[in-house]
Please model this.
Amino acid sequence: MKYRLLGNTGLSVSEIGLGCEGFMEENCGMAKKLLDTAESYGINYIDLYSPNPDMRRAVGAALKGRRDKFVLESHLCSVWKDGQYLRTRKIDEVKAGFEEMLRLLDTDHIEVGMIHYCDSLKDWQEILSSGVLDYAKERKAAGQILHIGLSSHNPVVARAAVETRDIEVLLFSINPCYDLQPAGEDVEKLWADEAYAHPLVNMDPDRRKLYELCEERGVGISVMKAFGGGDLLDAKLSPAGKALTPAQCLSYALSRPAVATICCGAHSEQELADCAAYEDISEEEKDFAEALAAFPSIRWKGHCMYCNHCLPCPSRINIADVTKFYNLTEAEGRVPETVREHYAALEHHAGECIRCGRCERRCPFDVKIRENMKKAAEVFGY
Ligand code: SF4
Ligand code: SF4
Model:
């Protein structure tokens, strides 16, 4: 298993993480089985969005004696009321839900306290005005939350939250189809037939800016819905009209800036093992570029998709990384110090480009790579 730093949190997390969708199976008996499987593959990142008390109790029991092996991303504002899931911003309910969460999980802290499901700016304002964010900060000061997160499907809302600098981790829905869609408050519209009834070109700029902002600010992204709820794996259900493989979906999400881990919603030990198998497959199997380039009615053109298809470069430039760092400077309108340092750490730099053009012949997305290398060399000075 490969591990990545989750933004600036200092947490080292497995690229393949685990969502809790399957934990409720077999009267929650599946929670222990999935944690056993996760541990055996080195999967250490677990998202717990559900407030189901039986599930939380089962996870607490399954964590006994190995709590330190897992990084828990558990949700505030996701509470259990009258036998049902409820998303709430009422501070009394949020507090009671958080205390119950710790009790049921039988732990004195969670690594990531994820403020649950915020898809509108109005709701984000409510999180601020109702005291939810202040409560999360208070619990952080008390050591019960190590890092504060927010989950969202809306890049505009997520960016507003990241701009506050209080959010350290973002749980965000990322897949190649969502990435084409404009920001909105209704997650259902991201998958609606009408959203794909006209030709779509390139990643939505708000999404691109969000990923770049997170990378620049050191906000780690954990990913949900990488397979579009499974629909992307089936040509009949995929809004793109063509199926992707699980490896292509994982590779796509893992290639976005700031992404550290993908929370896979496995329902069985075999499903989780299949996700973990991503670590052992070839680069060809992970390659998503040609599959995306073959989508009917959807085109990616002129913007780097960080797919690495353009390599090898005779000057050994990592073109995707150089392009990413250059894009970060464009997003900020200046060269942030962290980006300057990351660029300096590359073994080869844009200034070494000999303008041979081989990369452009290989790029499936018509990126003007030579022009980008020239601009990057000007911006960074080498
Ligand atoms: S320049 Fe083209 S081939 Fe290279 S990483 Fe970007 S999109 Fe992929
Ligand atoms: S044009 Fe520049 S970046 Fe592209 S392959 Fe040639 S040397 Fe490398």
